[in-house]
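User: Teach me something about this protein's shape.
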Amino acid sequence: MSEGTAAYDRGDYKTAYREFLLLAESENVLTPLAQRILGQMYHFGDGVPQDFAEAVKWYRKAADHGDDRALFRLGEIYYDRVSGFHDYAEAAKWFRKAADQGHAPAQSNLGVMYENGIGVPQDYSRAAKFYRMAADQGDDMAQFNLGHLYDGGIGVPQDFTQALMWYRKAAAGQGNALAQYNIGYMYAHGRGVSQDYSEAAKWYRKSAAQGYVLAQTNLGSFYYNGEGVPQDYIQSHLWSNLAAAQGDEIARSGV
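Assistant: First, the predicted structure itself:
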């Protein structure tokens, strides 16, 4: 296994494929891992032509051994519109199997599916439940989405304190730009906190630096009006231009 992994890491996919195939067709403790890696090679076209059917074949073999990542990858393929296997209900089934094993990204994806009624009946309470499972494991998108539910009182009682807590976790752990923007928005509008333009500008800047267009637009506006930052038309123009380049109509109208 180590030889195959080393070959894979250095881009020697021919050797990696040969080593993983030997393991995948054997019966030992490393067999499911090798099967899953072969699935990934076909899934993403690593050293072999991309082939979703072959990816599904190897993922299913690994999934039969209970490999949670293979279960998750199957969910991804069935969720994907271009895979030729597109089936949201089937995607939800595989994500649920992975989620039942504690796989955080699968739990997060199930939350999205329940929140939006994709492949499952729309159920905000169940969305919150799966987001929380993943959020407790540090999944930043689940933390952001759970914060969003608390922010809007969707599937949970509206609670700005909880919303801000989960946004902060997402912003601090993985630097989630959406969470950083929402924290800025809460401070800018006094949403569950005392209005504080300086604090809002700080969080908009973090988000804007990652390319989030709404944060760039709002930061440009702050500089234009001198809210939370010294008035600076050059900085305002800079951030507004960056937002306009991404197609933001509000920023474009002011450039």
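Now, about its shape. The chain has three domains: 1-101, 102-175, 178-255. The chain has a mean pLDDT of 94. If you'd like, I can walk through any region in more detail.
User: That's plenty for now, thanks!
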